[in-house]
Specification:
- The chain has strands at 3-13, 16-17, 24-26, 30-40, 43-44, 52-55, 59-63, 66-68, 79-82, 85-89, 92-94, 104-106.
- With 107 residues, the protein is an all-beta fold.
- The chain is 0% helix and 52% strand.
- The protein starts with a strand and ends with a strand.
- The strands form 3 sheets. Strands 1, 4, 7, 8, 10 and 11 form a 6-stranded parallel sheet that branches. A 4-stranded parallel sheet has the order 3-6-9-12, with no helix packed on it. A two-stranded parallel ribbon has the order 2-5.
């Protein structure tokens, strides 16, 4: 990856995206590391990834994170990931909702 993002010891709360990725939308060719990050009550009004949407050739690591009360109107109440590598370790998912499928969704 050409770009690396590291986020540590942060709470992202009550973010509201009109389309995808309530708190974050991560795009192509990057390595994204999240450690001890809380995603609380984030939402997207019209698509995927209540807290986070990830798409395209990324490496994504979530360690010791919490996803609580995030919501979306399509798929991936907490995380929606497509065409990317996703690793989630020692993380908690509570009360994340979406209309069609799963807390974590992707392909």
């Amino acid at each position: 990856p050409n770009l690396q993002l590291t986020v540590e010891n942060l709470t992202i709360r009550d973010a509201d995206a009109e389309f995808s990725g309530g708190a974050m939308l991560l795009h192509f060719n990057s390595k994204n590391i999240f450690r001890n990050v809380k995603f609380i009550n984030n939402k997207t009004s019209h698509w995927n990834g209540g807290a986070v949407k990830i798409e395209g050739l990324n490496e994504n690591i979530f360690e010791n994170c919490e996803f609580v009360g995030n919501q979306c109107t399509h798929t991936g109440g907490a995380i929606y990931s497509v065409f990317s590598n996703l690793s989630v370790n020692n993380s908690i998912f509570t009360d994340n909702v979406c209309t069609y499928a799963a807390t974590i969704e992707g392909g």
